[in-house]
């Protein structure tokens, strides 16, 4: 892959920020909706399902882009544990972005709910009706959602650490708005 | 910005303060949204817990309307409903129903004669896969005007404070209009002789996009035979389920689905207020109950009769109940399906 690249490709950066907004919204919508009985409940549920499916589609596109463009190399002087953490967290993020919507969809299928996206548009059921599968998936959706939020907080801390403490260009790899790739990393 | 790699030696505190602040604020916003910082928020969890009898809920069973029996049948639309709603379920034709007759009690072993409220859940599916779910009761109006008042009613009736009910009625005088029906001893002797009312208002959306606020009722073809609860008690604790099983085995039972359209200004947001009797009412078709099956392993068991599962052409209105019910039914469903083992599907080895 293009290891000389110091930034993610423009489509990758656009997708990253778009999905960051969507996923954070989903986490807040999720915990908000299950804690209220007001009419907000219905509004939030009606956003949660189509937005979650949209994230599934975007995550698959993003995975394809990642396989195509690759990712800029991490700074050579980054301590090994941090490098490992950075790489591992990327795998977990991709797994969660794809698994969470699938679990949501499967959980509704196992509970015999129609998976309505909007109006008369609904998705097919992907699992047979089963209380035990529903329970398993419901617990998975719940615990993985909190793991997801925890991981995002760690990710934000790490990236701010790169920027504010190390200032090593990792932040700019995704945050930069410029469309050209720098030929070289600033100081290494 | 000048790019210079910081050496690990010149330690600065402020970046870590910034990081802690960002993470801390995000976590607090999340906790607030989840309701963890708002102990007074009426959550689905609280509302459903409020329904439980003193000994706790009956595990594996619905948290309300717990005693019930499944049925299958059809809805035969006559086409009249299409003037009000574009939902395919109103297009002339016959569509399958999975339903459930039930008693309005959190106790699945309650005696029939102890429970005034009888209910009906239906799920109608059209060939395009759209569903219409509805859970209705035989009462002409709902005891309270909004979900918070329903929670207050549950709390007051469970309270040991002798003034609790009096205070509740003081704050919710509409409850008094429910009492004549609740206290009447003119019950019927069969699930087949009851009307079932949506009570909540919904909007029917027609082809042109015009919205019509409506309520609906299933009106029985069977002649009601009045019976007092005392007489019903003598027929045994589970008479209603035995009776409906025999009756349907002898011949299918029918109800007309009557849709009532509100006039401007009618109280659509308050199921405690009946609409005037002269409102336009349209017969949109017939429900036929063809077969009864026990709930334990019947087709209605794992269905949530969530009243907000609606086809395109029917939506919720300004009535606050359907949202609250949807949130509460989901909570109840999640609990009872996780407790499957406490309500075995075969009667042998039943723990109850
Ligand atoms: C990236 C995608 C998703 C994220 C981050 C997400 C996140 C969440 C969160 C945080 C909750 C609240 C958990 C709780 O406190 O109980 C939740 C609940 C829920 N989610 Fe998702 N979700 C996603 C996708 C989906 C999809 C695609 C569907 C369905 C098509 C779905 C259906 C649901 C349902 C039905 C609930 C309520 C669960 C319950 O009954 O308690 N989710 N989700
Ligand atoms: C805020 C008010 C209400 C609350 C908290 C509430 C709560 C519940 C709960 C927890 C269930 C069990 C759901 C399940 O596990 O599937 C249930 C079932 C039912 N409710 Fe309500 N309910 C409310 C209002 C109403 C109203 C207004 C009606 C009728 C017009 C109604 C009629 C029924 C019926 C018929 C069932 C049985 C459905 C079935 O067979 O599964 N409820 N209710």
Describe it for me?
The complex is a heterodimer of chains A (188) and B (352). Helices cover 68% and strands 4% of the residues of chain A. With 188 residues, chain A is mainly alpha-helical. Chain A has one domain (2-166): Fumarate Reductase Cytochrome B subunit, CATH 1.20.950. Chain A starts with 9 loop residues before the first helix and ends in a 13-residue tail after the last helix. Chain B is α+β, with helices and mostly antiparallel strands and 352 residues long. The model of chain B has no long low-confidence stretch (mean pLDDT 95). The chains are: A mainly alpha (188), B alpha+beta (352). At the A-B interface, helix 1, helix 2 and helix 4 of A face helix 1 and helix 8 of B. The complex binds protoporphyrin IX containing FE (HEM) (2 copies). One protoporphyrin IX containing FE binds at residues 23, 26-27, 30-31, 34, 48-49, 52-53, 55, 100-101, 104-105, 108, 115, 141-142, 145, 148 of chain A. One protoporphyrin IX containing FE (HEM) binds at residues 47-48, 51, 62-65, 68, 100, 102, 119-121, 135-137, 142, 147, 150, 198-200, 271, 304-305, 321, 324-325, 328-329, 332-333, 336 of chain B.
CATH topology name of chain A, in short, is Fumarate Reductase Cytochrome B subunit
CATH architect. name of chain A:
Up-down Bundle
* Secondary-structure arrangement, i.e. CATH architecture of chain B: Beta Barrel
Q: Order of strands across the widest beta sheet of chain A?
A: 1-2
Range of helix content of chain B: 25-40%
Distance between the termini of chain A: 20 Å
- What's the number of extended β-strand segments of chain A? 2
Average residue pLDDT of chain B: 95
Structural class of chain A: mainly alpha
| Largest sheet, strands/sense/barrel of chain A | 2 strands, antiparallel
Bulk shape of chain A: elongated
Query: What would you report as the Rg of chain A, rounded to the nearest angstrom?
Result: 19 Å
Mean pLDDT of chain A: 92
CATH class of chain A: Mainly Alpha
What's the SSE pattern of chain B?
A: HHEEEEHHHEEEEEHHEEEH
Give the helix proportion of chain A (percent range): 55-70%
pLDDT under 50 segments of chain B (min length 5)? none
How would you spell out the order of helices and strands of chain A?
Answer: HHHEEHH
What portion of the residues of chain B fall into strands of 2 or more residues? 15-25%
How many domains make up the coordinates of chain B?
A: 1
Domain Cytochrome b561 bacterial/Ni-hydrogenase (chain A): 7-174
InterPro entries (chain A): Cyt_b561_bac/Ni-Hgenase, Cytochrome_b561_oxidase, Di-haem_cyt_TM
Transmembrane segments (chain A): 14-39, 51-71, 91-108, 140-161
Keywords (chain A): Cell membrane, Electron transport, Heme, Iron, Membrane, Metal-binding, Transmembrane, Transmembrane helix, Transport
């Amino acid at each position: 892959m293009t290891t000389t690249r110091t930034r993610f490709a423009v489509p990758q950066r656009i997708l990253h920020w778009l999905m960051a907004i969507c996923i954070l919204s989903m986490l807040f919508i999720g915990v908000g909706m299950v804690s209220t009985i007001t009419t907000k409940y219905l509004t939030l549920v009606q956003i949660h399902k189509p937005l979650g499916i949209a994230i599934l589609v975007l995550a698959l596109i993003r995975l394809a882009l990642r396989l195509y463009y690759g990712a800029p190399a991490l700074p050579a002087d980054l301590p090994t544990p941090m490098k490992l953490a950075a790489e591992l967290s990327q795998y977990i993020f991709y797994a969660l972005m794809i698994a969470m919507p699938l679990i949501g969809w499967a959980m509704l299928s196992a509970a015999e709910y129609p998976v309505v996206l909007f109006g008369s548009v609904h998705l097919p059921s992907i699992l047979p009706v089963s209380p035990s599968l529903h329970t398993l998936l419901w617990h998975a959706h719940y615990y993985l959602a909190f793991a997801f939020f925890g991981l995002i907080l760690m990710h934000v801390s790490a990236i701010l650490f790169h920027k504010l403490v190390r200032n090593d260009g990792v932040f700019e790899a995704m945050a930069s708005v410029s469309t050209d790739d720098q030929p070289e990393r600033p100081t290494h | 910005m000048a790019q210079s790699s910081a050496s690990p030696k010149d330690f600065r505190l402020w970046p870590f303060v910034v990081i802690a602040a960002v993470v801390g604020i995000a976590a607090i916003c999340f906790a607030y949204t989840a309701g963890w910082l708002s102990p007074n928020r009426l959550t689905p969890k609280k509302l459903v817990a409020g329904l439980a009898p003193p000994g706790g809920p009956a595990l594996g069973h619905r948290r309300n309307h717990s005693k019930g029996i499944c049925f299958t049948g059809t809805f035969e639309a006559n086409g009249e409903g299409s003037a009000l709603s574009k939902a395919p379920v109103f297009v002339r034709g016959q569509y399958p129903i999975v339903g459930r007759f039930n008693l309005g009690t959190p106790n699945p072993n309650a005696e029939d004669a102890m429970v005034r409220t009888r209910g009906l859940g239906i799920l109608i599916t059209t060939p395009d896969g759209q569903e219409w779910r509805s859970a209705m009761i035989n009462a002409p109006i709902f005891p309270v005007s909004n979900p918070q008042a329903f929670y207050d009613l549950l709390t007051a009736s469970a309270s040991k404070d002798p003034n609790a009910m009096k205070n509740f009625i003081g704050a919710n005088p509409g409850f008094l209009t429910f009492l004549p029906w609740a206290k009447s001893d003119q019950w019927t002797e069969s699930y087949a002789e009851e009307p079932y009312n949506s009570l909540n208002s919904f909007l029917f959306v027609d082809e042109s996009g015009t919205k019509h606020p409506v309520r609906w009722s299933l009106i029985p073809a069977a002649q009601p035979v009045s019976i007092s609860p005392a007489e019903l008690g003598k027929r045994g604790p589970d008479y209603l389920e035995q009776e409906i099983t025999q009756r349907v085995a002898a011949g299918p039972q029918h109800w007309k689905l009557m849709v009532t359209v509100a006039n401007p200004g009618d109280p659509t947001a308050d199921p405690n207020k009946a609409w005037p009797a002269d409102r336009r009412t349209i017969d949109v078709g017939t429900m036929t109950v063809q077969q009864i099956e026990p709930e334990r392993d019947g087709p209605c068991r794992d269905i949530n009769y969530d009243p907000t599962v609606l086809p395109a052409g029917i939506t919720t209105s300004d009535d606050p109940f359907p949202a609250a019910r949807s949130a509460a039914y989901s909570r109840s469903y999640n609990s009872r399906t996780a407790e499957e083992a406490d309500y075995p599907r075969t009667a042998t080895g039943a723990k109850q």
